[in-house]
């Protein structure tokens, strides 16, 4: 797909998330792990453990001048994130996220690409039966009409809705649709839908997205209740669901955020991406009886087994030569017997074991055992690397 890795820090200034993610979002108001500055410095800026990646990636992209590179910028990041959640199945206070972003492209084909990329990632793990839910929440030009329609609809019911909904009613009425506590309220089921209020540009973008998904053969469903929990989204929003996750059925989600880069301090630049919670992916893999390929132990190229005092320095010299030649290599540091070293080499998933005893050292040779085939050959010490390369050719 042509994406490059970018590694943002785990700690960012709180202001970045207040302005970027949204001051009224649950992430900012309830879920961030804030870091209190030391001392009495009144100018010290508060910091927070990152609750998500997108805002930090935008900041890093701007601060490092990556907008000067050929556009669009296609990046990914992976690592831990932190939210003060109510811990439950599929939801943790510390979790790992795969994040994918594209900056600088408005084409709805890019929205479809990031959806397809996520599906390809989990398909490599063997996951099937996923449901792609999509919606469009419009843009700053058409959203005010929809915002007004929502307020007109929910105003008579405010006394029946939760405290959070009453707060959101004035500050961000779209997030009334994101309320879990009042999700079954009759007013929720009859609320206006965004698709009826899209401007011509958003309508064309929405129809283009559906066309590209169909062309890629991606089954999808339209869910007008998806608004996502972050304020920066515009136009496309989506979630990918797995039925075995129950209430936490979203494996990952994302959408378009054409105004975020400008909010963080850059020029108006479109963007789209997603964040995938890896703990949820692993949970589904376990329930499906699948093993993630990245859980397999990496193979060691060569294990150097030595026996006797004279063989030890020769083995260490060979170890360094193997590593300098680009081979992964290891040696015993616990003084094990030869039998125990061979057993350890097997547990390390080593392809070859080079066996050096005092007799081999005197003759300038070593025994090289191919662990998969069970064959063994005597090879001059100065030809071992060449022998291993020929065997792998």
Description:
The chain is of the alpha+beta class and 393 residues long. It has two domains: 229 residues, Bira Bifunctional Protein, Domain 2 (BirA Bifunctional Protein, domain 2, 2-Layer Sandwich), CATH 3.30.930; 96 residues, Anticodon-binding domain (Rossmann fold, 3-Layer(aba) Sandwich), CATH 3.40.50. Helix content is 34%, strand content 23%. It is built from 14 helices and 16 strands. The strands form three sheets. An eight-stranded mixed β-sheet has the order 1-5-6-11-10-9-7-8. The chain has a five-stranded mixed β-sheet with strand order 13-12-14-15-16, sandwiched between helices. The protein has a three-stranded antiparallel β-sheet with strand order 2-4-3. α4 runs parallel beside α8. The protein is elongated.
What is the topological layout?
Layout (H helix, E strand, L loop, with lengths): L3 E2 L5 E3 H7 L5 H6 L2 E2 L11 E3 L4 H10 L9 E10 L11 E10 L4 H17 L6 E6 L6 H12 L8 H9 L14 H4 L10 H16 L4 E3 L11 E8 L8 E7 L3 H5 L6 E7 H10 L12 E8 L3 H14 L4 E3 L6 H10 L2 E8 H6 L1 E6 L4 E6 L3 H9 L1
Parallel strand pairs: 1-5, 7-8, 12-13, 12-14
Antiparallel strand pairs: 2-4, 3-4, 5-6, 6-11, 7-9, 9-10, 10-11, 14-15, 15-16
Helix pairs in contact: 4-8
- Lateral arrangement of strands in the main beta sheet: 1-5-6-11-10-9-7-8
Question: Spans of 5+ residues with little confidence (pLDDT < 50)?
Answer: none
Question: How many domain modules?
Answer: 2
The CATH class of the largest domain is identified as Alpha Beta
What portion of the residues fall into strands of 2 or more residues? 15-25%
* CATH A-level architecture of the largest domain: 2-Layer Sandwich
Estimated helix fraction: 25-40%
Distance between the termini: 29 Å
Number of helices: 14
The best one-word shape is elongated
**N-to-C series of helices and strands:** EEHHEEHEEHEHHHHEEEHEHEHEHEHEEH
Total number of β-strand segments?
16
**Rg value:** 28 Å
| Strand-pairing-aware structural class | alpha+beta
GO molecular function: ATP binding; catalytic activity, acting on a protein; histidine-tRNA ligase activity; transferase activity
Keywords: Aminoacyl-tRNA synthetase, ATP-binding, Cytoplasm, Ligase, Nucleotide-binding, Protein biosynthesis
Pfam families: HGTP_anticodon, tRNA-synt_His
Domain Aminoacyl-transfer RNA synthetases class-II family profile: 1-293
């Amino acid at each position: 797909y042509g994406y490059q890795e970018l590694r943002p820090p785990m700690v960012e200034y709180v202001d970045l998330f207040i302005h970027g993610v949204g001051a009224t979002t649950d992430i900012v108001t309830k879920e961030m792990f804030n870091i209190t500055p030391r001392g009495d410095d009144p100018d010290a800026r508060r910091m927070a453990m990152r609750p998500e990646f997108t805002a930090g990636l935008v900041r890093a992209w701007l601060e490092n001048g990556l907008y000067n590179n050929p556009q669009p910028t296609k990046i990914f990041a992976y690592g831990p994130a932190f939210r003060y959640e109510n811990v439950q199945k599929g939801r943790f206070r510390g979790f790992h996220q795969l994040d994918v972003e594209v900056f600088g492209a408005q084409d709805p084909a890019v929205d479809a690409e990031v959806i397809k990329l996520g599906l390809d990632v989990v398909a490599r793990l063997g996951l099937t039966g996923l449901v792609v839910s999509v919606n469009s929440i419009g843009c700053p030009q058409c959203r005010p009409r929809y915002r007004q329609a929502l307020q007109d609809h929910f105003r008579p019911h405010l006394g029946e809705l939760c405290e959070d909904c009453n707060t959101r009613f004035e500050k961000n009425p779209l997030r009334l649709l994101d309320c879990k506590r009042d999700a079954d309220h009759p007013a929720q089921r009859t609320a206006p839908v965004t698709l009826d209020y899209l401007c011509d540009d958003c309508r064309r973008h929405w129809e283009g997205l559906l066309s590209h998904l169909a062309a890629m053969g991606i089954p999808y469903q339209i869910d007008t209740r998806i608004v996502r929990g972050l304020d920066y989204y515009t136009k496309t929003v989506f979630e990918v669901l797995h039925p075995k996750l129950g209430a936490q059925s979203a494996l990952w989600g994302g959408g378009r955020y054409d105004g975020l880069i400008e909010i963080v301090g850059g020029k108006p630049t479109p963007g789209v991406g997603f964040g995938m919670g890896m703990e949820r992916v692993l949970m589904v893999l376990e329930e499906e009886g699948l093993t993630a390929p990245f859980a397999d132990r990496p193979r060691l190229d060569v294990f150097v087994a030595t026996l006797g005092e004279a063989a030890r320095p020769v083995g260490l010299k060979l170890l360094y030569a193997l590593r300098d030649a680009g081979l992964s290599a290891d040696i015993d540091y616990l003084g094990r017997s030869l039998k125990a070293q061979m057993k350890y080499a097997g547990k390390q998933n080593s392809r070859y074991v080079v066996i050096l005893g005092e007799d081999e050292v005197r003759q300038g040779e070593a025994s090289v055992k191919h662990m998969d085939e069970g064959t063994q050959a005597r090879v001059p010490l100065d030809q071992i690397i060449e022998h291993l390369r020929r065997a792998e050719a």
